[in-house]
Amino acid sequence: MSGKTAPIARNRNPLSADLASDLSGSGDLDALYREEAPRLARYFRRHARQTDEVPDLVQETFARLIAAKASETCRRPAAYLQRMARNLLIDQSRRPHTRLARFHVSIDDQCEVSGQPEQGHAIEADDALRMYGQVLAALPDRTRHVFTLHRVDGLGYKAIGEQLGISVPTVQYHVARALMQLDKAFDRG
Fold first, then answer.
1. Is 78 helix (H, G, I), strand (E, B) or coil?
2. What's the Cα-to-Cα distance from 69 to each of 40, 62, 141, rounded to whole Å?
3. pLDDT tens for residues 151-162?
4. Ranges under pLDDT 70 in the chain
């Protein structure tokens, strides 16, 4: 490497090693950087939201200039750089969410708005199950057994009648009796 990269490295707005090596290959770019970097830095300090980003913004502006290879074809590279700096600030302001995304905390992840609806439903469900159990416990044994075979085990009237040795109308009677008791209990509650 030639001695041209040393002054760039000591500059207040140092460039990355790759960009410095690109600039060292062209005396015009090196001179342009030395002349325009302080102006761009002042511009960014006045207009950027965070002044600690100023060196990065200066470097990004020159990187865009090199990528566009505009320094070779542009008659007024300082004006072109100034325009690129403005565009860089505009781009930066349009996407603040990308810069701050790592600091974003979703309300859904950290805060529970309220526990009352879920808690209220859980309490109501517990009360209903408790009342259901009390009503079933108060039923006569035969009615409770027929009802649980029908509602819990999912057996049909005919299968329950065959299993218990009773007629289908008797099964219907016991199921209807249990449902009436449950209906009374829930109407009162």
1. helix
2. 19, 10, 93
3. 889 999 999 999
4. 1-27, 70-73, 95-117, 189
